[in-house]
Design goal:
By secondary structure, the chain is mainly alpha-helical. It is 62% helix and 0% strand. α1 (9-23) packs antiparallel against α2 (33-44), α1 (9-23) packs antiparallel against α3 and α5 crosses α6 (100-115). It is globular, with a radius of gyration of 14 Å. The two termini are 19 Å apart.
Length: 120
């Protein structure tokens, strides 16, 4: 059995800044994103005001935030959360016609999958 995650306060903020940056790409967080933010805020004992002002516009900055977290499991969880929140969009991206939104999401998700270090 793996030991529980031990995140520093800075790592919690990094995780939430990166996730929030993805969630607000098209405006305010939507109905699928709000519950995730609420749950993680409770788990991390954070408030949205602690990280909402540090929004990253480009994917490289998001990857840097996540790669700065020591535990590789957290990086995997980050990508899993994105995958689960956007599951319908991912399915549409694979099956449906390519819209500008699905192309943009596909690029972002693919870029993060390549740039986040899952091995160390």
């Amino acid at each position: 059995m793996q030991k529980p995650l031990q995140l520093t306060q800075e790592e919690k903020l990094r995780f939430m800044r990166a996730l929030y940056s993805i969630f607000i790409r098209d405006g305010e967080p939507n109905d699928a994103e709000h519950p995730v933010l609420r749950l993680l805020n409770e788990c991390f004992n954070l408030s949205i005001s602690e990280y909402q002002h540090y929004v990253h516009i480009n994917d490289a900055d998001i990857a840097k935030e996540i790669n700065a977290i020591q535990d590789v499991r957290v990086r995997i969880y980050f990508m899993r959360i994105i995958h689960d929140v956007y599951r319908e969009e991912i399915q549409y991206w694979f099956k449906g016609p390519n819209t500008d939104d699905s192309k943009r999401f596909a690029y972002m998700y693919g870029y993060l999958r390549e740039q986040i270090d899952f091995d160390s």
